[in-house]
Specification:
It is a single chain. The protein has 279 residues and is an alpha/beta fold. Helix content is 51%, strand content 19%. An eight-stranded mixed beta barrel has the order 1-2-4-5-6-7-8-9, surrounded by four helices. The chain is globular and about 60 Å long. The termini are far apart. Bound molecules: ligand C2E and calcium ion (3 copies).
């Protein structure tokens, strides 16, 4: 038994070592990724349920490494956060996304919002609002076409400071959204303290919507309460027409998900806008 115990230990030690090594390797690659131009952004449409038209897109980060291939955000965003690399990467994301949105407008396409995800680490940067203001100025994008997505967890982390930063963002004129709503511990009543424009219902609730037990009850309640606070609602992860119909019946404002379009290139979005692709 002692032998097995030791073998098991050695096995775990080796596995842990391997995991730690992999992390170090990934971190090394991540440090070089920005200057080597390995990042791109994809854009996923957000569609208005009243008009059926694209009214916004969410920018989503993609990393293509020459040896590792495509690395999913779930595999490296956490590491980028821990190492602080998310700060320069995040600055690149905001700049690229704003410049892209302005480029669509310059091409004569109907203006849409650009949603950008902010990480906790970025949110803690003292000059965050100023640097966003600078990007808007330099790219020439009007603030109302930028939408900052923050998770509940970020918002709840340091309440007083948070309210000040959010107020500065509102003074700048950008839109503020709460991402993954329903996965944290905040209530809508609590969120009333923050100057939020949009709430994104997490895809877990959207998934349950067509299931007999739930029948859209949770999504319905979230939508009704958000509206009573003057907050718009986007449903995330909409994969079927049935989900879209229920959300539409429940007065959801916008949908985002594979059913309408997967995240895609700026060229593909440009074509959708040009052709007036709608539901
Ligand atoms: P998120 O902000 O909740 O982004 C939505 C995720 O859901 C995206 O995954 C998107 O591809 C996926 N998705 C969209 N429609 C559907 C659908 O119908 N069904 C399903 N199953 N999934 C759908 P992605 O791009 O892999 O990103 C994962 C997470 O990584 C994001 O979740 C976000 O937390 C983070 N992330 C991605 N890009 C960025 C970024 O630029 N900055 C920061 N800080 N985080 C990012
Ligand atoms: Ca998001
Ligand atoms: Ca989300
Ligand atoms: Ca709207």
């Amino acid at each position: 038994a002692k032998e097995t115990g030791r073998n098991t230990f050695q096995f775990y030690a080796a596995a842990m070592n391997e995991a730690a090594l992999q992390r170090v390797r990934l971190e090394k690659h991540l440090r070089n990724a920005l200057e080597r131009g390995e990042f791109t952004l994809q854009y996923q449409p957000q569609v208005d349920l009243h008009s059926g038209r694209i009214v916004g897109v969410e920018a989503l980060l993609r990393w293509q490494h020459p040896e590792l291939g495509a690395v999913a955000p779930d595999k490296f965003i956490g590491l980028a956060e821990e190492t602080g690399l998310i700060v320069p990467i995040g600055a690149w994301i905001i700049r690229t996304a704003c410049a892209q949105n302005k480029a669509w407008q310059r091409a004569g396409l109907a203006p849409i919002r650009m949603a950008v995800n902010l990480s906790a680490r970025q949110f803690a940067q003292r000059d965050l609002v100023k640097s966003v203001a600078r990007v808007l100025e330099e790219t020439g994008l009007a603030p109302e076409y930028l939408d900052i997505e923050l998770t509940e967890t970020i918002i709840m982390s340091a309440v007083e400071d948070t309210i000040a930063v959010l107020n500065d963002f509102k003074a700048l004129g950008v839109q503020l959204s709460i991402d993954d709503f329903g996965t944290g511990y905040s209530s809508l009543a609590y969120l009333q303290r923050f100057p939020i424009d949009v709430l994104k219902i997490d895809r877990a609730f959207v998934h349950d919507i067509t299931h007999a037990i739930d029948n859209g009850a949770i999504a319905n309640a979230i939508i009704a309460m958000a509206h009573s606070l003057g907050i718009e609602v986007i449903a995330e992860g909409v994969e079927t027409e049935a989900q879209c119909e229920i959300l539409s019946r429940n007065m959801c404002d916008e949908i985002q998900g594979y059913w309408f379009s997967r995240p895609t290139s700026h060229e593909a979005i440009g074509r959708m806008l040009e052709e007036g692709k709608c539901i």
